[in-house]
Amino acid sequence: MMTRFSILVALGVMAGCVSQPVPDSGRGVGFGTATEFERQRIAREAALQGAPTTGAATTLQSPAQVTTQAIPSGDLAAVGIGQSQGGAPLTAMSPAGTSAAQAAPASSAPVAASNNVAISDENDFSAVSDRETIESDAERRARQAAQRREIAPTDLPARPADAGPNIVEYALSAPNRKGQEWYSRSILRSEGRFQRNCASYNSPDAAQRDFLARGGPERDPRGIDPDGDGFACGWDPAPFLLAAGR
């Protein structure tokens, strides 16, 4: 059975628990209350945009109401920023971000852009329709047709007689293919001589032309056709035959 003293102690403990203040649920760690945090955020954003702060009543302004001036105009002008090429200051910008010339209504007819004679606008229908008609277009096409000239093909020029052997003609008339022995050669042919003499020509065509000029394909005085196929220094008539469709 509880004594009077025990009952009084229990009542005192309960009263102490009830009287303890409850923490402010709107206060964050290191930020204060939610209301204070919102007020500080609005003040910071207003300061970044150049708007004056008025304490708790400060509100954000719209972009059309805020004029950004992070750097003084005098500092910009000192380094040539904010001026035209002639040195005169540029047109001031309105709060909405447009220049006074853009904001004001046009008081005169727009100036037509100058035509660039180096660029044709014949494919621009709107440009051509202002100056051309069906009749004028027909006349222009008739003038162009009258100036057109047709050039008939002519025969190829004759090859000079002193130009040396014609390796194209020889390629098309050769009775065999590359690597197929067709002419007799000396059994004493030398590989070293073949390599040395072929290296003296700047191309296989030059070697074949000189080979024919020296009595080839029957004769091979320089030893540049050791296999007897009639083609010196590895020259191949296949490209000429392919071009001729053979």
Textual characterization of the structure:
The protein is mainly α. Among the domains are: 27-57, no CATH class; 167-243, no CATH class. 37% of the residues lie in helices and 2% in strands. It has helices at 4-19, 34-48, 73-78, 100-103, 125-129, 134-147, 167-173, 191-198, 204-213, 238-243, and strands at residues 27-28, 32-33. It has a two-stranded antiparallel ribbon with strand order 1-2. The longest helix has 16 residues, at 4-19.
Question: Secondary-structure blueprint of this entry?
Answer:
Blueprint: H1 4-19, E1 27-28, E2 32-33, H2 34-48, H3 73-78, H4 100-103, H5 125-129, H6 134-147, H7 167-173, H8 191-198, H9 204-213, H10 238-243
Antiparallel strand pairs: 1-2
- Order of neighbouring strands in the sheet with most strands: 1-2
| Helix amount | 25-40%
State the secondary-structure class.
Answer: mainly alpha
How many angstroms separate the termini?
Answer: 130 Å
Q: What does the overall shape look like?
A: elongated
Total number of strands = 2
Order of helices and strands: HEEHHHHHHHHH
Low-confidence stretches: 55-69, 91-101, 103-108
Overall average residue pLDDT: 74
Q: Number of DSSP helices?
A: 10
Main beta sheet strand tally, sense and closure? 2 strands, antiparallel
Proportion in β-strands: under 5%
Radius of gyration equals: 50 Å
